[in-house]
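Assess the record.
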Amino acid sequence: MSSSRKVPPDGDLTARARIRDAAIECFGEKGFGVTVRAIADRASVSPGLVIHHFGSKAKLRETCDEYVRQVIYEAKKESVSHPSADGMIRSLRAVDQYSGLLAYLFRAMQEGGELSRHLYEAMVADVQSYLDIGVREGTIRPSRDPAKRARWLAANGFGSILVLVTMQRDQENPDFGQVLHDWEQQYILPALEVYTEGLLADRTMLDAYLVYVSDPPEEER
């Protein structure tokens, strides 16, 4: 897969930020087995400088996790706090800039383990946080269970991406730029319809479920 986020020349970013961005690229392209030397080469610094700034590759990954989360959170928060047609169009036109972040997140979920579980749970909490902001701003409808809604949305988002990745011929080195364009072409319209207009024409199933959970069968109590 070609690099989706280019590291700016010396002087445009601090060395620490260049190393972080290079690590996000390398982890997204090759997974978390990539060496510190490979990350240093991508950032045009020495391996020693990587360790000087971050202490270890594990600490570097934690920094990358936090940065990726923050970029996504800020974009989502803006979209629910100040939704606009212009903002929507700008997001669609700038979709390529997120391919590196998507690659990183996919590799993190693919890796598994405690760090990946922590990242996922943190992102679920982020979803709930920006949805809560939207509820307060009046741009998002309230939920009977905000935590479960956030968890469902996070799982649904990751699941839809997983499907598109598995449909690519080269699953070892997916083209995440293409994945994002496929997502846009295949999913944005139905997603916006469901989120904006709803799917079911009446409340029959919801009301039945609410009755069920308020008085479950005796064997399930």
